[in-house]
Amino acid sequence: MTKSWDMKGTWDSKGAWETQGRWEEDRRAGFSEAGLRRMREVLNGHVASGAVPGLVALVGRGDDVHVEAIGTLHAGGDEPMRRDTIFRMASLTKPVTAAGVMILVEECRVRLDDPVETWLPELADRRVLKSIDAPLEETVPAHRPITVRDLLTFTFGFGAVLAAPDTYPIQTAIHELGLDTTSPDFGPDEWIRRLGELPLMYQPGELW
């Protein structure tokens, strides 16, 4: 492969110098055998150690894509991991969602301090418990609306209660509404509607 060191470019809107020539060179370069071998060794090490029974990894560079499927679907099992194996993402949806939101922020389509009631009207005009152990009727108005920043930083005033079940009335209400399960029988629209029936536990932005 012939390397191109053409450093022609342009200033982007943020004042950074974009070197299209170098990018084209990198894109054509693809992957090195040594790099892929090292990646495979590291991934195999995690499976061999028992940290995970198996994994699927994908890396892309330009038009080149490389996939590794290593190990088995279950610990002690013999069914191999496949490229199209479906994984439960669980809380990994949080950083994925945050990255998507920050792209919208960068594009000036959303601001971190925008009230979320624009998109989630169920979270408008919130009321807040006077204390975590108060009956659901003992509330005060929220000091301010819930913002995008509050949701991204888990400070919008609602969340898991680290106490024994039914210690507080709000816990009982969460359970009765089916908001404490990762596999509810209803969809996200119904989930947010039910959440809107409950008061917040703390003022927006007050506590993680």
TrEMBL record:
<dbReference type="InterPro" id="IPR012338">
    <property type="entry name" value="Beta-lactam/transpept-like"/>
</dbReference>
<feature type="domain" description="Beta-lactamase-related">
    <location>
        <begin position="41"/>
        <end position="208"/>
    </location>
</feature>
<dbReference type="InterPro" id="IPR001466">
    <property type="entry name" value="Beta-lactam-related"/>
</dbReference>
<dbReference type="Pfam" id="PF00144">
    <property type="entry name" value="Beta-lactamase"/>
</dbReference>
<dbReference type="InterPro" id="IPR050789">
    <property type="entry name" value="Diverse_Enzym_Activities"/>
</dbReference>
<protein>
    <submittedName>
        <fullName>Beta-lactamase</fullName>
    </submittedName>
</protein>
